[in-house]
Amino acid sequence: MYFRSLKKTAGDLSLSDSIDTDKDGNSLSLMEVISVEDDMLDNLSARETCSQLNRYIKETLTGREAEIIAMRYGLDNISPRTQREIAAYCGISRSYVSRIEKKALEKLRKCFEDTDS
After folding, report:
1. In DSSP terms, which residues pair with 21 in a beta bridge?
2. Rounded Cα gap, residues 67 and 86, in angstroms
3. CA distance 12 to 26
4. Is the dihedral of CA 76, 80, 82, 88 positive or negative?
5. Burial class, 95, CB count within 10 angstroms (exposed 0-12 / middle 13-18 / buried 19+)
6. What is the C-alpha separation between 71 and 97, in angstroms, rounded?
7. For residue range 1-34, what is the model confidence (pLDDT) as tens digits?
8. Cβ 18 vs Cβ 27: under 8 Å
9. Strand partners, 29
10. Mind giving me the DSSP string for 33-59?
11. H or E stretch including 25?
12. Pairing state of beta strands 27-29 and 18-21?
């Protein structure tokens, strides 16, 4: 009976058992080989926030506000631009770009605050 019970567990391996040694002679366990950073929840949260932001931009901002926010922060696969670059592109002053950006960000902030309430 004793030998039968040992035979059942003969192939079992613990995650902390040493399976090999590295080039410096340090013990390498199975856990070190198969472990990965678990950032799945962070990725899901970031994706959810990103989709919320896109929805709020479409629902609450005017066309010009959305365009300026997209250019300023590099949304929609475009590289971020300075206020001066945006002003030159749109044919308006840098200070006007700043006012539009500030107003748009305040609208978006309010959307996120209303969601949290």
Report:
1. 27
2. 10
3. 23
4. negative
5. exposed
6. 11
7. 555 666 666 666 676 777 777 778 787 776 776 6
8. yes
9. 18
10. HH-----HHHHHHHHHHHHHHHHHHHH
11. none
12. antiparallel
The tokens for 113 are 């605050």
- Tokens standing for 34? 């198969």
**In the block, residue with structure tokens 């004793």:** 2
The answer to whether 99 and 91 are in contact (CB under 8 A) is no
Which amino acid is present at 91? G
Residue found under tokens 């475009």: 78
Token representation of residue 101:
């950006």
What is the pTM (predicted TM-score) of this model? 0.61
Tens digits of residue pLDDT in 62-115: 999 999 999 999 988 889 999 999 999 999 999 999 999 999 999 999 998 987
